């Protein structure tokens, strides 16, 4: 029987997948992978020759703040998603600290309706609070929800769950893995007086390494007592990497490109408010610990923690300047440069940006180049040399902490469910995004 034609064949590129690394053609039909191999004579509606390029599974950024609703002057779902696909990112998980916060089914439904404007696939965290802690097991099963997010420090209002009793209630309710911002709010409160006006180098003193490790030790203890799984976001300290390496049965680990690339105090002296984020950029000892976590398999996921603020907001003297920096558009170029410089392999990068998120969050049908999976692909030119610039950022905030950085390796095409969404720096399908599916709510 003659096989039906493919909708799309991508030919001639090197493919990096769970099966290894080598030349192969990829055939797509109805938005999913159908065949990986030699398709030289196969019929197709569209054939794209990618000779000289490299195909990766679609990059999944599992931590972004797109600021909508309520803070759209910094970013919105549309502009954030345009930055994502320009950076080769095919799916994002967006955080709940908007105004209003995403802490109810109604707020989640509102975000999903707004997300029809997004260029990339998407899911949304529900924020854990003292008020909704006992309902989170229901909320996390809703379509379009990637899980529960809890701020143990660094947030304000109802999203802050600083106490052990509150965290324990969240853990008792959930069935899936919950994500945590792990800084000890009690220690942070004691140290806020250490902030020196106009001196961003004091940010790391206010939010010191002890604040992080104390919180993470508490969190793991509570998770183990509850028999639940946790995901520790943006780990920044050598001590946490060492500690978490002994608790991988309950805790998965995220690291960020900025913590792997920028170091204190140089970043604060050069970038001032642009270098301010929570947890902070730290010194070389901690960065080396993070790289050991990448090398030795402690880190599971690479997320950007894209958290934009305007240039005017960032220009306020510390500590009035807000914490957070954009990163979804630069995640891949920055990390491909680390690959080019020998700090990690391309296969390990794929594990951190595609396979890892799929495993940690139980994503259905994404994160792998495999028959039956969504045809999400990130095509890169490993030889391309570019300079990252403020003016090239699609984010509404209009800046990047990596301005002026020369990178080697750059995304040239983004394919989502078989549709070319970005090609050669131009977004050609700006409203292509759909909700991500998860293994535990497929019937929803």
Report on this structure.
The chain is globular. The strands form two sheets. Strands 1, 2, 3, 4, 5, 14, 15, 16 and 17 form a nine-stranded mixed sheet that branches. It has a domain of 305 residues: TIM Barrel. The model has no long low-confidence stretch (mean pLDDT 96). With 444 residues, it is of the alpha/beta class. 28% of the residues lie in helices and 24% in strands. The longest helix is centred in the middle third of the chain and has 18 residues. α4 crosses α7. It is built from 14 helices and 17 strands.
User: Which class best fits the helix and strand makeup?
Assistant: alpha/beta
Fold-level CATH name of the domain at 57-361 = TIM Barrel
Through-space gap between termini: 36 Å
Output the CATH homologous superfamily of the domain at 57-361: Metal-dependent hydrolases
- Overall form: globular
Summarize model confidence as the mean pLDDT.
Answer: 96
> Which strand-content bin applies to the residues?
15-25%
**Low-pLDDT sequence parts:** none
């Amino acid at each position: 029987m003659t096989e039906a034609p493919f909708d799309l064949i991508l030919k001639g590129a090197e493919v990096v997948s769970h099966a290894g690394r080598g030349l192969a053609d990829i055939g797509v039909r109805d938005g999913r992978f159908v065949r990986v191999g030699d398709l030289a004579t196969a019929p197709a509606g569209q054939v794209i020759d990618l000779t000289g390029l490299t195909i990766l599974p679609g990059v999944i950024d599992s931590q972004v703040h797109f600021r909508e609703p309520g803070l759209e002057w910094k970013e919105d779902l549309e502009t954030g998603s345009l930055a994502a696909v320009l950076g080769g990112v095919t799916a994002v998980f967006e955080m709940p600290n908007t105004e209003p916060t995403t802490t109810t089914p109604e707020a989640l439904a509102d975000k999903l309706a707004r997300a029809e404007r997004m260029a990339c696939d998407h899911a949304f965290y529900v924020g854990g609070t003292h008020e909704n802690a006992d309902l989170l097991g229901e909320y996390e099963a809703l379509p379009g929800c990637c899980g529960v997010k809890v701020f143990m420090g660094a947030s304000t209002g109802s999203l802050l769950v600083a106490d052990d009793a509150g965290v324990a209630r969240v853990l008792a309710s959930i069935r899936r893995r919950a994500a945590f911002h792990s800084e000890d709010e009690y220690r942070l409160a004691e140290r806020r007086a250490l902030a020196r006006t106009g001196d961003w180098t004091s940010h790391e003193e206010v939010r010191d390494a002890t604040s992080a490790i104390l919180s993470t030790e508490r969190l793991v203890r509570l998770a183990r007592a509850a028999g639940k799984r946790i995901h520790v976001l943006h780990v920044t300290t050598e001590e946490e990497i060492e500690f978490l390496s002994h608790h991988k049965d309950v805790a998965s680990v995220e690291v960020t490109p900025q913590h792997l690339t920028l170091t204190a105090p140089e970043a604060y002296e050069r970038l001032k408010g642009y270098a301010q984020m929570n947890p902070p950029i730290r010194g070389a000892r901690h960065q080396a610990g993070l790289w050991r976590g990448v090398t030795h398999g402690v880190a599971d996921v690479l997320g950007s923690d894209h958290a934009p603020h305007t240039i005017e907001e960032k220009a306020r003297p510390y500590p009035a300047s807000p914490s957070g920096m954009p990163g979804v558009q630069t995640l891949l170029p920055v990390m491909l440069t680390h690959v080019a410089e020998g700090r990690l392999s391309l296969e390990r990068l794929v594990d951190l940006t595609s396979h890892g998120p799929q495993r940690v969050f139980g994503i259905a049908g994404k994160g792998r180049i495999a028959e039956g999976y969504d045809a999400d692909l990130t095509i890169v030119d490993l030889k391309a040399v570019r300079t990252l610039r403020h003016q090239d950022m699609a984010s509404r905030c209009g800046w990047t902490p990596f301005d002026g950085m020369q990178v080697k390796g750059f995304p040239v095409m983004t394919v989502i469910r078989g549709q070319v969404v970005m090609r050669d720096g131009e977004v050609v399908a700006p409203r292509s995004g759909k909700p991500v599916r998860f293994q535990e709510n497929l019937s929803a």
